[in-house]
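User: Round two. Same drill as before: sequence, then structure, for each protein.

Assistant: Same drill it is. First protein:
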Amino acid sequence: MATIYEVAALAGVSPATVSRVFNGQTVSAEKKRLVHEAATKLAFTPNRTARRLRGQSSEIIALLIPDIENPFFTALARGVEDCAREAGYSLVLCNTDDDPAKELHYLEIVASEQMAGVILAPASDEVDLGAIVSLGRPVVAVDRTTPYPVDAVKIDNRAAGIGATTALFEAGYRRIACIAGPAGIETTEDRFLGWRQVVAARKTVLHDGYLQHANFRVDGGRAAMRALLALDTPPDAVVTTNNLMAVGALQALAAAGIAPDAFGLAVLGELPFMALTPTPFVQVRLPARHLGRTAAAMLLERIGGDAQPPRTVVLRAEVNPPEEQAL
């Protein structure tokens, strides 16, 4: 690997000039050109660790999300990475599995490694951002908010739940259940409150057991759907408040011998391709990639010195009725 001295020798300048060029200090246009040409020929990469020590922060952003296997968070991560790379930052991706202890461990690493900032989907309402905030590191909460005075970008989840449930009623279903995520998580609460609001407004009977909490994953959706089908008065449709639980619900329906066109389904998020069915279903498209780009842009503004009061940006989901989902 080439050194700063080799670049200086080839460019015909001093090592101090090379250092000034790569640290963004004032250098004549001609010397800057010579240094960059020499660096390119020698495949020289500036020492980012040394730059971090001088500037007290790195050019690395941390992204903490619950589950990279979930297509929603995969798209969100891509949005963050695209925006970060455009600004010259690299991304470190951490899976928390919605585990507060694991989340805290990663936050401690962010602090100790002096990363430039962090974007996270909090594992719980009790997320501990004390160390990060005290160090002055910028934080943006994504998908879920925190009790700390930090920026946030989220989806209007209650409106998404309302839209999904309304579409099922308009398709002719009346006994509409809801498979929601774990109790106590902001997205869970907002989405099932949207479902409950519509059911109450339609003055339909809300049978015991029609709200099922699950773990946001396929096995959780499968178990919840089995519980719904076992009720004395089973539903004729269900709102699944994330995509992976919808996959599990479809598996349970298939195992019970219920044809997809005999049961209504609304999905918040996009089904994985392998789970797509030729039967129409309601899909609420969540702007995951836009969510990620927006969060990254907000974080970069803070890294750049933006000192305005904390902001919360709310994005809207798009409801596609059943007839638009047939393949």
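Second protein:
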Amino acid sequence: MKLKYLLPIAFIALFFSCSTDDDDNTTIVNEVEGLELIQTIVNGNETIELYNEKGLFETGYNMISLRIKDNTTDSYIEDATLSWMPMMQMPTMEHSSPKSTISKALGKDTVYEGFIIYQMTNTDGSGWSLTLNYNIDGTDYSVTETISVMQYENQNTATFMGSDGTNYILALIEPKDPSIAVNEMKVGLFKMENMMTFPVVEDYTIALDPRMPGMGNHTSPNNTDLTYNNADNFYYADLSLTMTGYWKLNLKLMNTNDDVLKGEDVTDENEASSLYLELEF
């Protein structure tokens, strides 16, 4: 009789032991691993977290990851929709900047992402604010917060007026980690339609002539001009870097009729184009 009752008790003990082991082995996934927190913005019952690889905003192209935490449940929202509006406050005016839509990060449940291109800043990083609009379960929310945007050490973005009277913004995206090789170069090209709207410029050509001013202004072989890719709305080229140091990426912007809108050829008499970006590694 004792054995009859001992067997079920032993089975139950084994079941709960296995269940406990399974619970202990549950893996908690950190969906922002490898990213640094830039800033948190508290809005009532929600906290918006902003991340990127450096943990700060800089002039030029910024890829940004976002999460929304429900402060009541201490859990992250998986099904929100978001939009944003960066704004630069100047003494007599204000303007926005080129930006993408915000979408769910590939393979992530709680992370959303998009890019903003800050074309300028003040010397102390001040002047910018960021408005975030989001919808959770059919309810709209909005919050605006001051942000700091630091000046990048080299010229990774250029703002200029073309010969067609249009204001353009050009931003370097790749290479982020240049090497002595033929690197993939990637840039974004936008025009200022008005102070708040900066659409992508499609199907132009950007001639590329990289030079090393500190080394006799020599160039490099196997470069190609930047051409538009309609799959992601950016421009791509091969950029050949033959040694470490400071490189000036001389550029010349041409429209679909091959009219030169900005920039000049580099010659013995003209050491640099008026349109350029910079790399140093």
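Confidence is low (pLDDT under 50) at residues 1-12, 14-20.

User: Perfect.
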